[in-house]
Amino acid sequence: MNLLEYFARHHREILQATLEHVWLVGIAMLLAVAVGVPLGVLVARQPWLARPILGGANIAETIPSLALFGFLLPVPWLGDRAERIAIAALALYALLPIIRNTAAGITGVDRAIRDAARGMGMTERQILFQVELPLSFSTMLAGIRVATVLTVGIATIAAAVGAGGLGEFIFRGLAMVNNQLILAGAIPAALLALIADFLLGVCERRLQPARS
Amino acid sequence: MSSETKRTAGRSSLPDAHPVIEFRHASYQLPDGRALLRDLNLAVERGETLVLLGRSGAGKSTALKLINRMLEPSDGAVLVEGRSTLEGDPIELRRRIGYVIQEVGLFPHFTVEQNISLLPRLEHWPEDRIRARVAELLQLVGLSEAEFLHRYPHQLSGGQRQRVGVARALAADPPILLMDEPFGALDPLTRAEVQCEFQDLQRRLKKTIVIVTHHVAEALLLGDHIGVIDAGALVGLHTPKDFMSATEPVTAAYTANVRMFEKLEGPE
Q1: Given an 8 Å threshold on Cβ–Cβ distance, is A210 in contact with B92?
Q2: Is ipTM strictly over 0.90?
């Protein structure tokens, strides 16, 4: 039985697993953006917080993913359901590039532009939301893009704790020494990563601030 | 300086009783103790243009930033319309003071319209009043509304950007205008053009203006008074007329520079 036939026969399950995968990554990314962007702003605004925040995110990045899933198992509430563990771990991995790029985008805004905004009588809040963040969008999005591609890959490991997704095929394939099964998980995962990369790349270029 | 400023008789009514901007022994030093400005005493009367002339790093921009509280004096005081800048809300103070810096100060992600209307919008003006004001300002600085309203700063020439910068600073009709090297990024010909236009604008609007520059010609052209700043201190204060005959060394160095060019034109 060749690969195409296998895909055709199991397209329902593969689609189901792909949707689970997208769901895990999507929720994790929403969480990571919701936490990472404010942290990035903090890093840019309060340099003394840069070290602990970036250091913390860096450490999360270095924990092997399989171990991280394991570490989260005994955590109350989180450990109750496999998806919760998976989403929390994925969000942790996504944090670093988002924080770093948000901070880089904001500190990269031309000093003269900030000065002009301040001199005109804009409040710090108005400067952040109307000037600094809009001018950092494309840099921020570049971070989100890197994080998304990263998480699509790592999410396959979430199947190890029973969170579902395309990793199910890969783990089953590994256990049964069945290459077709592995590919049934690996190919859609790779495609997902490529599609996410492409779409976010388009957004990134669209948001590129016009520079003089 | 107030002694040499002619006050029109009968205009000593309350609002004019004090200078619009006044430095009283104002000093500014960095946290590391380096003094950028030492014991500055200066007054700018209503409707007058003061030019602060000096080398880069002499402290003239520092003086300017003390006026709108971008910086706070470490000693002495700066008074705007009779009140210390440290009293009250800095945001409120800055909104009554137009601020123009070199062309880079325009927001690159905003159109000309959005740049100019930013402050009126922040002040919640009604939409039709904003539209009318933007049209009025574009006309004032000589830019066609139809052509420029929806352009982005990077689609403008240096001179056009400069005009938009002035229009933006005037948007909420502030009584005071601060300009930090406003024509600094322009080529000499455009610069001369914009300067002349600005001179015209100055006469019509009667704002109280402080301009920072290192161009002596600009100072002579635009200033009612020229304050020469060197190494953080005011070393001379002259009208353009007596500027040329000033004997104090830093000013004399500037006038020598001007004379050198006059010599090139040859004796007639």
Answers
A1: no
A2: no
